[in-house]
């Protein structure tokens, strides 16, 4: 029974990683939207076409510790990327939480990865 569960878990992880890689490979532009202050309304703040920056974001997402979770946040996301990723700034303003839309996948990025992603998205430092 444990062997079957381990194989099933490994297969699910493999399918998730392959799906993320396919999604990521299709990203040639990152469209960053920021919440305007009006609930549910977003404004495009950045469009990233620089290959190195896109690859950095893809690498961050591929190496993140994703959890299978139905997440219910108390407020709408602060940012969206390509309408695929919802991103929240933690209350301490030192980390980012990311949800893959429609996939029930959640991660809280490390402080270092949060700073990197935030800098790419906004050209500013997280917490400023």
Question: Can you put this structure into words, describing what you see?
Answer:
The protein starts with a helix and ends in a 6-residue tail after the last helix. Helix content is 38%, strand content 25%. A hairpin with a 3-residue loop joins β4 (79-81) and β5. Residues 8-14 have low confidence and may be disordered. It is α+β, with helices and mostly antiparallel strands. The protein is globular.
The Cα radius of gyration reads 15 Å
The SS-based structural class is alpha+beta
| Number of helical stretches of at least 4 residues | 3
Low-confidence stretches: 8-14
What value does the average pLDDT take?
85
Examine the secondary-structure arrangement and name the CATH architecture.
Sandwich
Sequence of secondary-structure elements: HEEHEEEEEH
Major sheet characteristics? 7 strands, antiparallel
The CATH topology assignment is Immunoglobulin-like
Q: CA-to-CA gap between the ends?
A: 51 Å
CATH class: Mainly Beta
Helix content: 25-40%
Q: Topology, pairings included?
A:
Layout lengths: L1 H24 L4 E6 L6 E7 L2 H13 L3 E2 L10 E3 L3 E5 L6 E5 L4 E4 L2 H12 L6
Antiparallel strand pairs: 1-2, 1-4, 3-7, 4-5, 5-6, 6-7
TL;DR?
This is Lipoprotein. The chain contains three helices and seven strands, in the order αββαβββββα. The chain is of the alpha+beta class and 128 residues long.
How would you describe this structure in keywords?
single chain; 128 residues; alpha+beta; Immunoglobulin-like; seven-stranded antiparallel beta sheet; 3 helices; 7 strands; 38% helix
């Amino acid at each position: 029974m444990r062997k079957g569960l381990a194989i099933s878990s490994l297969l699910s992880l493999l399918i998730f990683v392959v799906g993320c890689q396919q999604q990521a490979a299709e990203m040639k532009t990152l469209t960053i939207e920021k919440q305007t202050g009006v609930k549910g309304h977003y404004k495009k703040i950045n469009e990233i076409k620089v290959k190195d920056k896109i690859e950095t974001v893809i690498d961050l997402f591929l190496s993140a510790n994703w959890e299978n979770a139905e997440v219910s946040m108390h407020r709408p996301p602060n940012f969206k990327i390509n309408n695929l990723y919802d991103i929240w700034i933690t209350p301490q303003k030192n980390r980012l939480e990311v949800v893959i839309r429609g996939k029930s996948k959640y991660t809280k990025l490390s402080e270092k990865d949060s700073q990197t992603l935030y800098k790419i998205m906004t050209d500013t430092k997280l917490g400023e």
